Amino acid sequence: MIKVTESAKNQAVRLMDESGKPGSFIRVGVQGGGCSGLMYELDFDNEEKEGDKVFEDNGLKIVVDKKSFLYLVGTTLDYSGGLNGKGFVFQNPNADRTCGCGESFSI
Which residue, of 28, 32, 79, 107, has the greatest Cβ tally within 10 A? Predict the structure, then answer.
C-alpha cells in the first residue's frame, strides 16, 4: 500500500484540475538512474495497464506498476512547499540511502 498525505492529495487534485485532467489518478514508479541508483517517477494518468497495483488512500487513487511496487511498499507520498523547494516527496521505508535532493534512492 502507498499512503497519501492531505497536502499531497490537495496538490495533486489542484494540478490535475489545472492540467485539464480532473478525475485522473497518480501513477508512481521507479526507474534506474539518479545519483543513488533508482529514481522516483510520478505522473497523472487515466489508463490502467495489465499488472498494475491499484490503491486508494485519502480519497486519491494511486497506481503502481508491478515491478516498481516491490520498491515502494509502505511508502508515503507527501508534498512539501518549504524553503528547500516545492514538490512531491516520497517517504520510503525501504530506502537504505537517498540523495540530497530526495529524488533518488538505493535499496
Answer: 28
Judged by DSSP in three states, 37 sits in coil
Q: How far apart are CA 107 and CA 98, in angstroms?
A: 9
Look at residues 75, 58, 67, 69 and name the one whose alpha carbon lies nearest to residue 2.
75
pLDDT in tens, 65-103: 999 998 899 999 999 876 666 788 888 887 765 655 555
pTM for this entry: 0.80
Tell me the three cell numbers of residue 97.
Answer: 540511502
Neighbours of 45 (CB within 10 A): 14
Rg value, the chain, Cα: 13
pLDDT for 69: 92
Cβ 8 vs Cβ 26: under 8 Å: no
Q: What are 85's strand-pairing partners? A: 82
